[in-house]
Known about the structure:
The chain has about 270 residues and is of the alpha+beta class. About 55% of the residues lie in helices and about 15% in strands.
Amino acid sequence: MERIFAQFDWWSAIDVTIISVIIYQLLILLKGTRSAQVLTGIVLITFAFIFSNIVPLTTLNWIMSKFYSSFILIIIILFQDDIRRMLSSMGRRSILTSSDLISSKQLIDEVIQASTRMAESKTGALIVFERNITLQRYIDVGTLLNCRVSREILETIFQTSTPLHDGAVIIQGTKLAAAGCFLPLSRREDLDPKYGTRHRAAIGISHETDALVLIVSEEGGSISIAKDGEIYPRQSPEKLRKMISKYILEDDGQKSSNGGFWSNIFKRGNR
């Protein structure tokens, strides 16, 4: 131990600091993605490899050594979406200031007013609230808006005469990030046959991520909520407000609180 500290100089301290910053930034990039869960698995495999070198577990050590010979390639394949997102976001900064954004409570009011009016006119709508797991891949293939959420904008987007009405809108934080976004459809066979594409898309994205999804049915004029791959049909404005507030305002409080570093990095997005 004394020999190790004897070799530790200022350059070693700089070296360790740079590596620590790089690892920290990678963890921040992975925060809120499914890759964070994959990274947890890789860490466990690494510990298994170290353990197999300490104790005479020949077979496990052989399997682990073969695995790590292709480690870099496996990392690139597993994290290709996050690597692409990281590279595309380099140098990109939001031009929105805090004065351009509305509060979460105002956002909820605007969404509920819009959805209630669209339900009355039987105008179909699909509104997705991003929570902890990023929806950037779906935002990128939609029409980018980055604007304030308002009742007028939402109602205009979902008018059948507009080119964006068939897709979903995604709310990221307190801004309307994109419209015309296409979501993964649920393939569950036990769903009620009355559920159409919008409901299946809502179930699909809420199952794949932790997103909260509001659906306005153009057939029945009812409003439903999708969460964790399940549909909660026929929600009244009061119930809508309670449910959306419960998850959206709760998420805002958690993000602003001083939670544990590792619990924030590796927080599971879906249950």
